[in-house]
Amino acid sequence: MTTEITLDAAMQEQVFAFMADPATHGGMSIRRIDTHAAVVFLAGDRALKVKRAVRFPFLDYSTLAKRKAACDEEIRINRPGAPQIYRRVVAITQGHNGALRIDGDGAIVEYAVEMARFDENATLDHLAQAGALESSLIMDLADAIATSHQAAPIVAADGWIRSIPSIISANTIAFRASRRFPDRDIDALDTASQLAFTRIRPRLQERGHRGLVRRCHGDLHLANIVQIGRKPVLFDAIEFDPAIASIDILYDLSFTVMDLLRFRRRTEASILLNRYLTATFKENLGGLATLPLFMSMRAAIRTNVLLARLGGAHKNEASTLLAARDYFSLARRLINPAKPMLIAVGGLSGTGKSVLARALAEALEPPPGAVILRSDVARKQHFQVHETQKLPASAYQPHIGAIVYQTLAECAEQILSQGHSIILDAVFAKPSERLAVADIARKLNLPFVGLFLVSDLATRMSRVGHRTGDASDATVDLVKTQETYDVGLLDWQVIDASGTPEQTLQCSKIVLGMPEIRMR
């Protein structure tokens, strides 16, 4: 029967030396990765993660029992979402002769989380650094995050809401102590953040009452997401303190969105937000006002994580400081969002409205871009079916169409009033429909641009005929029928969409006065 023995710092160093010895792993080469709270040893197809014997204000691994509990909790929290990574907790033992073994029969001197090793270059921070990420990967990531939030246990919201001013203040104190940034910039970020919290506090309380504060991942930056088998896997969720991970689900999402922005992947950030909102529309329609503060807080936290690495044994201090400055600058930009605007993209089926809307979304302020509201998706949501499920003809009766357009208008007004830009994607064949959209922007005193795409019949028929896996139920026969529509006097900007999507985008960009935008 094994027994635990007291472990001091010297003993843990012996354990680390033992784990770093190739002989311990059958002669395989070892890679050691050090963090402030753990040391990871990579050998062959296995990774072993040992908690450091440390105590921080937010974390206590100072005793063997506490480290064992943390290892058990890491497996419990992470295995459901990443079963292909997390295996078990193993003991490091010491025999009577003083020899250490992994999972041996002697006295237990340490514990490790055993994981399947993955390609370290396949984490999303490395992939984002190397280049653009595939849209399919980002959409799968949004679905994975939404699924994790649906499964996350609901927790009381009061503690989370009360902690926000303290988090902001703690970031500010750390910034001042670092002496890396001008005091005026630190003060401006602190003031803007505290004011933003005051503004959105009632909204946060309402979200808490609706069960949207949950035991989340808690640390969803890009380095904690890995691509395995072309699918994103979330790992290394916070296990050491449930309170830190008991947060609003949009605060969890905001870390990933913010990190994509930091890596200059705004297209991907826009795709992620829109895909996530489509999957969680009812829950989060009223939560967009929280994003500027949430993303700014996440950027500020990331800044301080990097600053904490300076001055120690950490290598590449220059690049670490540069990254910290980048995150700090992003935190300042995100907390001061620009004024939103409303764009409507209309046109008959097959003119390329949805393709254009997706390309334009990322370019609109504030970051990460506009929320896209599409009539085809709204109709499927009305009937509570998946967006690619085909609806019967009865779902396209005029009174249903009126409901869909009214829903789009109401949602657009709600989102715009929270400070977030909108792109409406619908046919808008009737003058009354176009007038109603313009009235939304006029009511809120916000900029509005209406684009109406036109194209020849053959092109539209070809595009619709080749669609697969899309929310639209339009058919070639419908395209022919739409030739009889009387759209009335077009007071929107008419865009020739008979060419390539890139050409349509460039024409729209000129009308909108936007900078260069590339198609993805």
Descriptive notes:
This protein has 520 residues and is an alpha/beta fold. It folds into 3 domains: 9-117, Phosphorylase Kinase, domain 1 (2-Layer Sandwich), CATH 3.30.200; 124-334, Aminoglycoside 3'-phosphotransferase, Chain: A, domain 2 (Alpha-Beta Complex), CATH 3.90.1200; 342-512, P-loop containing nucleotide triphosphate hydrolases (Rossmann fold, 3-Layer(aba) Sandwich). It contains 19 helices and 17 strands. It has a 6-stranded antiparallel sheet, with helices on both faces. The protein has a 5-stranded parallel sheet with strand order 14-15-13-16-17, sandwiched between helices. The longest helix is centred in the middle third of the chain and has 27 residues, at 183-209. The chain is elongated.
Radius of gyration: 26 Å
Judged by helices, strands and strand pairing, the structural class is: alpha/beta
Mean pLDDT figure: 93
Strand order within the widest beta sheet: 1-2-3-8-6-7
Termini separation comes to 61 Å
Give the gist of this structure.
The chain is α/β, with parallel strands linked by helices and 520 residues long. The protein is 48% helix and 16% strand.
Topology:
Elements: H1 9-19, E1 31-34, E2 38-43, E3 46-51, E4 55-56, E5 59-60, H2 64-78, E6 86-94, E7 100-102, E8 107-116, H3 124-130, H4 135-151, H5 158-178, H6 183-209, E9 213-215, E10 225-228, E11 231-234, H7 242-245, E12 246-248, H8 249-262, H9 266-279, H10 281-284, H11 291-308, H12 317-334, E13 342-347, H13 353-361, E14 371-374, H14 375-382, H15 398-416, E15 422-425, H16 431-444, E16 448-454, H17 457-465, H18 476-482, E17 493-496, H19 501-512
Parallel strand pairs: 13-15, 13-16, 14-15, 16-17
Antiparallel strand pairs: 1-2, 2-3, 3-8, 4-5, 6-7, 6-8, 9-12, 10-11
Helix pairs in contact: 4-9, 5-6, 5-11, 8-9, 8-11, 11-12, 13-19, 14-15, 15-16, 17-18
